[in-house]
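Progress note, sequence design subtask.
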């Protein structure tokens, strides 16, 4: 469990735009341990999708500049060429996106799309083997085998999300990256899709990176969580340790929004006074300082990292130590 299966080290992603350089990810580091569900939580625009798309080699190279390392199976994914990356993407690391209708083809049946995902990596599979595997994948994600003959638009949002998940696990990847897989769904269906993720993680021994805006989703689903702000991880910890002892002022503000009493998967992040920094300037010092009640002049320098409990790291010059509850 302690062994990282994916290690993102000091990742930078800049976009070269007509308005100037957008510094979307600025020194992000994260270790995904084998067999865990690791949440990445943070406000809109903090770099959750850009960083994971960079890991998958999905950022358009012409307009972006990527630095850092992403170690997987002894290799730095950022150094691989497109052919080498194609062997990994979908086969060993796969991704589920927020909006199934944008990711599934409207013109192909569900069965054909799942089978295509498999043939691209296992061209020797026979038609019969493909059909059988497709049916068992559909059943695994809780869909009837007859769904194979349907088109995506004939299915509900929750069913489409399950189809995408079946496609993503079809080549038995080691890592699944789920980018806001439940945001577009209503609360009950969200809970079902998250349960499915947990079951698949257990049965297939997957390691999962689960991106979300929603801290309550993290609380109910993840073993560990990394809080992201302005292109960097500001705190990372086992979920329980973060909920009980969050030390970064930004993490505390996020936790403040978990509704009490219910699982609350429908909650959104609270409004924190002030604005996230403009990403047109390179990161300098602590990005949260302008919004932070604890900030001092020294926060203009890069924050140190403190391990406040085992595996609980906080990147802050003034970590909050007093107990959160009671
Ligand atoms: N192709 C691009 N060109 C320029 N800027 C971009 C590009 N893609 C993303 N960005 C910017 O990078 C920043 C990070 O975007 P990203 O999509 O990673 O945010 P996010 O954390 O996933 O947000 P959300 O929760 O809304 O999905 C944003 O400010 C976004 O506007
Ligand atoms: Mg996103």
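Output:
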């Amino acid at each position: 469990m302690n062994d990282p299966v994916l290690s993102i080290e000091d990742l930078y992603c800049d976009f070269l735009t007509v308005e100037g350089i957008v510094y979307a990810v600025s020194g992000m580091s994260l270790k995904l341990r084998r067999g865990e569900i690791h949440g990445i939580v943070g406000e809109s625009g903090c770099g959750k999708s850009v960083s994971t798309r960079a890991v998958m080699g999905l950022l358009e190279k012409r307009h972006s500049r990527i630095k850092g390392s992403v170690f997987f199976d002894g290799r730095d994914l950022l150094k691989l060429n497109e052919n080498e990356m194609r062997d990994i993407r979908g086969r060993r690391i796969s991704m589920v996106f927020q909006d199934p209708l944008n990711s599934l083809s409207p013109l192909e049946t569900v069965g054909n799309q799942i089978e295509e995902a498999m043939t691209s990596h296992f061209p020797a599979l026979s038609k019969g083997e493909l059909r059988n595997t497709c049916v068992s994948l559909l059943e695994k994600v809780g869909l009837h085998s007859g769904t194979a003959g349907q088109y995506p638009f004939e299915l509900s949002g929750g069913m489409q999300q399950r189809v995408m998940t079946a496609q993503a696990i079809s080549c038995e990847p080691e890592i699944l990256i789920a980018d806001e897989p439940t945001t577009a769904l209503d609360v009950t269906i969200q809970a079902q899709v998250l349960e499915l993720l947990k079951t698949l993680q257990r049965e297939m021994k997957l390691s999962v990176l689960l991106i979300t805006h929603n801290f309550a989703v993290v609380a109910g689903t993840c073993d560990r969580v990394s809080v992201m702000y302005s292109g960097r991880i500001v705190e990372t910890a086992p979920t329980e340790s973060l909920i009980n002892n969050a030390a970064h002022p930004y993490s505390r503000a996020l936790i403040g929004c978990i509704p009490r009493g219910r699982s609350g998967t429908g909650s959104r992040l609270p409004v924190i006074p002030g604005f996230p920094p403009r990403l047109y300037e390179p990161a300098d010092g602590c990005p949260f300082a302008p919004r932070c009640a604890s900030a001092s002049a020294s926060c203009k320098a890069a924050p140190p990292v403190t391990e406040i409990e085992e595996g609980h790291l906080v990147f802050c010059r003034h970590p909050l130590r007093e107990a959160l509850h009671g």
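The two ends are 32 Å apart (CA to CA). Work on this subtask will continue into the next period as scheduled.
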